[in-house]
């Protein structure tokens, strides 16, 4: 078969080698008028043409070439040649024929497009203001849902493209930066959450393209199951030289959080009620128990947080080049505080990118991005060292400091010496992240139509982290035999290298037939290594957190892992006269993660499109674009961990009969195979009135087969409780729509509006032989249910006769019980991943004034308050603070019949705070994500003598307002609501884990161009 493919390729090469192409078209300005005397050149050649009085031109070029149009004022714009008849090239408005780079040297124009993808430009990325570019996709790309695992700056952000494609594997899309696939996993060993994408400076990004359907993602085979995000870094412009300096200063606070926690008097009343109902204690007894002086009223929540959350950014870059060189270089510093007093993210980064045309045949490209980031911040979850958690729980009656100014370490708390301010000041969590992203490649024109491209890239990440617990109080003061205090140091290396080679044949014949054939190989190697050490026995009052200041080593280890991919791929694209396009991809992947019988997988995709607007019957109409397109194909998912198919053995596993012992630590399954996703996509694109109204609609169906998950074993004597299997199936359906309208466009004023909407829902169609597969206390999988649906006890409210809790006995919700042991876990009908997402943005440009704004919406999903049972405990932990609604809602003999909460009883009211749907909230919300107002001082104002070409002064706001639909939801539904990682799969999605809240920010900035 390989021989036949090669012979076919050589035959087509021989037939079409000597056929030339003459490309023609017209150039219009933003108002639709012809642009005369504009120069049209073909990049990399000597071909030149000048438009006539009608804006028309003819030039020697071929499909795939890039035309550079330069008007009389020197403004330039690039257009990719899609066919011999280019039609109208719109100068100054959004261009339909701009080339989109799909990877491996493959680019296509909008006319050639058969798949579903969306591109976000640099200016739209900058508007969001996040330390990582991925947040800019939220609300700008239909079908993409982005959460936030923490409000900690630099934290990882789970990304879902068209929903769920795996139950246990990694659900993150593949991210490719300038052709180099990079890691997206949270790789920190100590930090609460880290995001490798935060080590890429957003100001160096030219564009981000999200591939969503199979004809695009199948080009990346087994790594494209979750979608593909292509990041193109800036490379400068030829024959120019421009400098830019940008600085920003900002201040922020909490974006959304209901501040309805009790003050000192309120907490005394709550605790007194709980103690009175449990033991008959009086109010005065409670005051004495707490040691309250009647005056102290400390807001611990504010005390553990920063009074003013600041940020600053400095960016300096150069963009330019010569006739044969494009060059872009940048140096930047970004600093962002978090809400917690000890939370901060600092990044220094540098970038250099260059394209060099050596001669008319050879081109070389090179880029390197280097960065160092430091992240400090507290842990998440129910830990006393988490100031967000402890700050909520601490009774306002307790003093922060003693009268002598020392920390109060005799608190009325779950642990009296866990003063969260003291822990913030004395304990340390330091994480230094280093990233080097290096790419070098070249392309060589073997003939006019045959090109060879090679690209080698490295993504290197080094994490150097230190955790220190002081010896005097808190987690470090444990009376350990090796001494108090604890230090833990970790160094981790993550290295990915990628080498791809592609041979591309591109030919236009008879002026209307264009054929592009691509064949290539790719090899990927991923290695991970770590070394860690810990010590105990720090001296009392120690102020040096390094390990060498502790007396006794307590543990040390090192290890690593690796995996590799080898791939062969081919692509065919045919376009007839800019009207009809057909595309096909095939890829063969081999992975070290699977057993000998299933190491290889074959994935493919086909697509077709009809550009109806190019037909004669629409000639001269107001329709600028009308396209029907469809695609179908398969991709795989091999993100199951490096050794899931193997039996794993551990040599150092303790002792047996006085001798060192080993043990099997994992029951392997050599028959594990790739998860496979088949996707059908049908779409329509149209644009009218000089593209002042454009719309795109896509409908898709995704079927996943051979889902990987674990099931319980029957033989308990083996010592294994579960094993991996491959027999699940799931289906997702969705619709995506994007609409752009330009209501006003004049010489001085332009107003544009863009909106998008996406619907996605998934259903498990076959799993575990039709039986339920229980994963943990919050999620389960069963046929007919969404894979992210919550599975827990069903809360039925309060028994109005005696104030005890009630639960439903089963999913039918027909009978209730006051005995929690009779309350069966059941599916709630509530899921973690949004069903509906939307975005709306608008932009006004009047002369030098700029005003824009963006809103996002997510709905049809829920979030579970994982620690609600602690602070909404109905008195179980009455000594801890709670929220104000207990006073109106808790059952008393006086409000029997209308109470919404059980009676408050210290020590608990019949297990009322047991995990149940009581702590499940609707997460539907609208977010005013960003806004900007600014003014550009152009050359006309600045004057010709001033070295500045442009000065832009602006104010931006981020996360300005959050409107939630559930009145009881008190925390930001986006934080922690879409958390997923490789260890827990989708089980942790939708679980709020007492993370830092999202920031609301206001930024003042100045940009200078010269």
TrEMBL record:
It comes from the Bacteria. The keyword Signal applies. Residues 407-945 form the TonB-dependent receptor-like beta-barrel domain. InterPro entries: Beta-barrel_TonB, Beta-barrel_TonB_sf, CarboxyPept-like_regulatory, Plug_dom, Plug_dom_sf, TonB-dep_OMP_SusC/RagA, TonB-dep_OMP_SusC/RagA_CS, TonB-dep_rcpt-like. Residues 1-21 form the signal peptide. It is found in: Cell outer membrane. Belongs to the TonB-dependent receptor family. This is TonB-linked outer membrane protein, SusC/RagA family. The lineage of its organism: Bacteria, Pseudomonadati, Bacteroidota, Flavobacteriia, Flavobacteriales.
